[in-house]
Every structure is written in structure tokens, then in C-alpha cells.
């Protein structure tokens, strides 16, 4: 990414068309408003970036439901 490309090989952009996310274009080279990109793809890209940035080593999801979730099963 130091070479100015996103993990998917797209060039990082500091501008974006009207209605597009400049932050996502700077970070990933795309956003969910781009043709052929779904919202979930942008969400996964943000989550992966945050996990890489903070490097916690923890799983992306909780290993077990919260007590509120367990209570809802009753």
C-alpha cells in the first residue's frame, strides 16, 4: 500500500465522484457507490483495514453470544 495501491490492486484516489465516499477511495480505491461494488464488500474492506491497523490478533467476531443473546434464546 506504500506504492499507492489498495490490497485489491486498485489505485488509491484522493477524489471521488459525487455520491461516492472519498474516505473509502483513499483507503481502498473504491466504495459501495462504485459500479460492481456491493455495500458488504466495502464493509469487509473497512473491517480488514481496522483489524490490520490495530493488530489485536483477536477474532473478528465474538467467540460466544453476549448474555443478552443467550437470554433471548430462553
Note down, in words, how this protein is organized.
By secondary structure, this protein is an all-alpha fold. It has one domain (1-59). Helices cover 39% and strands 0% of the residues. The protein contains three helices and no strands. The chain has helices at 22-28, 39-54, 67-72. The model has no long low-confidence stretch (mean pLDDT 76).
The percentage of residues in β strands lies in under 5%
Question: Helix content range of the residues, please?
Answer: 25-40%
The dominant shape is elongated
Based on CA atoms alone, the radius of gyration comes out at 16 Å
List keywords for this structure.
74 residues, mainly alpha
SSE map:
Blueprint: H1 22-28, H2 39-54, H3 67-72
In brief:
The chain is mainly alpha-helical and about 70 residues long. The chain has one domain.
Amino acid at each position: 500500500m506504500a506504492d499507492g495501491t489498495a490490497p485489491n490492486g486498485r489505485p488509491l484516489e484522493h477524489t471521488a465522484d459525487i455520491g461516492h465516499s472519498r474516505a473509502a477511495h483513499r483507503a481502498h480505491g473504491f466504495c459501495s457507490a462504485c459500479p460492481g461494488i456491493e455495500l458488504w464488500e466495502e464493509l469487509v474492506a473497512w473491517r480488514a483495514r481496522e483489524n490490520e491497523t490495530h493488530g489485536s490478533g483477536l477474532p473478528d467476531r465474538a467467540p460466544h453470544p453476549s448474555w443478552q443473546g443467550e437470554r433471548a434464546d430462553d
